[in-house]
């Protein structure tokens, strides 16, 4: 799981880490990903997540958070954007967070 830095919400930390995992899976510049809005589509033209990179991303999320997105989100709606994936992971690892 992840520790939350003082003064930040669990979702903020998770989104930052998800962006880093997306950068690693897609081999995109982390600074480029950090500048994109949260609603940027993972499979859209700005990130262009491939199926192979998607598998790598899901494996990285499972390793980092212990969250098996494919098992818990059958429709994989959480893979719509950076924000939806971060929100999904946050809800699973911090179910009592606001």
From TrEMBL:
PROSITE patterns registered for this protein in UniProt: CARRIER, PHOSPHOPANTETHEINE
Keyword flag Phosphoprotein: yes
Key words, A-Z: Phosphopantetheine, Phosphoprotein
Record Pfam families: PP-binding
Entry keyword annotation includes Phosphoprotein: yes
Record-annotated Carrier domain positions: 9-93
Protein name, as recorded: Phosphopantetheine-binding protein
């Amino acid at each position: 799981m992840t520790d939350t830095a003082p003064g930040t919400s669990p979702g903020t930390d998770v989104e930052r880490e998800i962006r880093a995992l997306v950068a690693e899976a897609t081999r995109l510049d982390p600074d480029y990903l950090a500048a994109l809005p949260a609603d940027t589509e993972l499979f859209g033209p700005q990130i262009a997540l491939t199926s192979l990179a998607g598998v790598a991303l899901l494996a990285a999320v499972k390793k980092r958070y212990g969250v098996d997105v494919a098992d818990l989100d059958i429709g994989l709606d959480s893979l719509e954007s950076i924000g939806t994936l971060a929100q999904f992971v946050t809800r699973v690892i911090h179910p009592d967070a606001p």
